[in-house]
Amino acid sequence: MSSINAIKVVKDSIKFVLTEADLGTKIIGDVLKTPLRKVSCTRDLQWQIHYYPAGYDEVAKGYISIFTAVTAPTVVKSTFSVDGSPIQNFFTQRVKCIRGYHEFASHKELRPLFRDGKITITCDVEIYVPVPWSFITSNVFQSCEHIPTDFTLIVEDQRLETHKHLLSFVSTVFHAMLSHDTIEKRSGTTTITDFEFAIVKIALDFLYGREVVDPNIDEVIGVLRTFVKDHQYDIKNANGLNNIPHKAVINVIEAAFGLNDSIDVFRQVHKNGIDVIKDTLALTVSKSLCSDNFSKVASCAWDCSSDYIKEKCIQYLNQHWADLTLSMDFVNINAETIKDLFTAAKNARDKKKKTGES
């Protein structure tokens, strides 16, 4: 018997800047693409925007054409809008590969809206993702409301009420404590000294399925520590974090801060000194490198002093010199970064030339 899936609606958004110069310099059929974004709750589904400043074809001449593209067939609701204007359109359809509007907005409509030669266009999507029924079952805390709590965690002189069975289920330490005739089992309480109250509360909220509002990076790392038995080390740089799969850590950081881009995750990790997973992330960022996100990746590499990503950017620049340097997006890179990038690229070419001569 075939399994029956539920449907989860995953919401996301992309903004991109259209320049007035694009309307004049691009020709019919020239396409620009935003970087691919991963759709949460899926294994590998991704989406992006394709837009044609001069129009998709002769019929769309004088219009900007805009489309939502997905890497696998799915139902999508896409809403395209020009920021600061009433120009908007949307569709809800099953998209096999790409769908949108050949004549989204005319150049005549758009020209009065440019400010400093730019306008911003937003695409909000709702992607209908088939998921197992377990994704939409009620939260644990809703299922436990009729069962009185029977255990108390005391943290920083504050009390958190919980259930013994839940603690035993998620922690071998609590399971051992509550399976034997211990003081904690008899009293129904235990005092936690290793963690701050806020960390323990967020960990419990997470386990019960309650909403966690705007955690900071230290709280996220603290929650990760609660699931590691050996947490006497600095979780950011030592063995504690290595006991957790790096992909799981990355997923938690993405979810906690609403990030859907490995480049932004790398910046967050660098900012907060979570060095132990930087190599894993640097590899992911480098694999995502393309002409559409080159400026973002290069800026990240230099801002975060990642020699590995810098090297990949230098190689990519030398391989795609003409396309990248003529791109309007290239000017978004900091001038000092461009100087370093060009110097490093030239040195790499000279070194390769000398090697070839010798």
UniProtKB/TrEMBL annotation:
It comes from the Eukaryota. This is MATH domain-containing protein. Residues 149-216 form the BTB domain. GO terms for biological process: protein ubiquitination. Coiled coil: none annotated.
